[in-house]
Amino acid sequence: MKTSENQKETIFPKGDLASPDYFTGKAWVKMLVPNDPILNTAVGNVVFEAGARNNWHTHPGGQILIVTQGTGYYQEEGKAIQLLQEGDVVNIQPEVKHWHGASPKSDFTHIAISTNTEKGIVDWLEPVTDEQYNNFK
């Protein structure tokens, strides 16, 4: 399946367009494992077009990101933006305010694993401003 001109073939479908209430730019989400009340885990594949990102948010039970394609950004509140590339894994502790998304010139795909979902999955906060997004050094 071809997901964009910049992106290689991917093994998962692109999914549904993500809500503009929680994302700047275009992103698509395909739930691979909907929230499972026995395993307390939800798994989704998220595809961001270049420059797209999600809002600041927290996960009550934590989250793991596994980068599968492209180049992206990850930032925790009060820390510098981290560059993410294929093969990187990010462990996000519960209630840590953060955002993630594509770098300005590359599509970006990651698998998002929400853990301990009995505590809640995500609490969406304010959008990441252009000034914050463009602060990568």
From TrEMBL:
CDD domains: cupin_HNL-like. It comes from the Bacteria. Pfam families: Cupin_2. Residues 46-102 form the Cupin type-2 domain. PANTHER family: BLL4564 PROTEIN, RIBD C-TERMINAL DOMAIN CONTAINING PROTEIN. This is Cupin domain-containing protein. It comes from Flavobacterium psychroterrae. The lineage of its organism: Bacteria, Pseudomonadati, Bacteroidota, Flavobacteriia, Flavobacteriales.
